[in-house]
Amino acid sequence: QVCPRLRTPRLPVWLCSVTGRHGVLFGTDSHLLSDWKTERVFHLYFYNGQQEQTKTAHLTIDTHSHDWEEDRSEDPRSPEKRRPSVEMAIRTKWAGATVSWNGTDPFF
């Protein structure tokens, strides 16, 4: 039998497979599970245990960013516009969200 806390976690946790590597994306705000208003700007953490990741990445997610804030003069396929796979995974839940890596170098 599965423990009730495994079926209904206290904190938001997602197990991810990003580019063939497994990782954990999690938050420390329990309201993110039950109150849609907390989905405006919030923090998530990502850890995959790989050698190149020396510490947990602290990400700030803004779900109300505006598409007109992006520079439209650049080709979206250019290397400067390439987005890390973790960001693309986050956008499967929060489409159009911007992700700030808070000083951590984004990894692909």
Give a written overview of the molecule.
With 108 residues, the protein is mainly β. The chain has one domain (13-100). The protein is 9% helix and 26% strand. It has helices at residues 4-7, 85-90, and strands spanning 13-18, 21-26, 41-47, 57-62, 98-100. A five-stranded antiparallel beta sheet has the order 1-2-3-4-5. β1 and β2 (21-26) form a beta hairpin. The longest helix has 6 residues, at 85-90. The chain starts with a helix and ends in an 8-residue tail after the last strand. The model has no long low-confidence stretch (mean pLDDT 82).
What labels describe this entry?
108 residues; mainly beta; five-stranded antiparallel beta sheet; 2 helices; 5 strands; 26% strand; cysteine-type deubiquitinase activity; MINY3/4; K48-linked deubiquitinase activity; hydrolase; ubl conjugation pathway
Layout of helices and strands:
Layout: H1 4-7, E1 13-18, E2 21-26, E3 41-47, E4 57-62, H2 85-90, E5 98-100
Antiparallel strand pairs: 1-2, 2-3, 3-4, 4-5
Brief sketch in words of this structure:
The chain is mainly β. The chain is built from two helices and five strands; from the N terminus they run αββββαβ. It has a five-stranded antiparallel β-sheet with strand order 1-2-3-4-5.
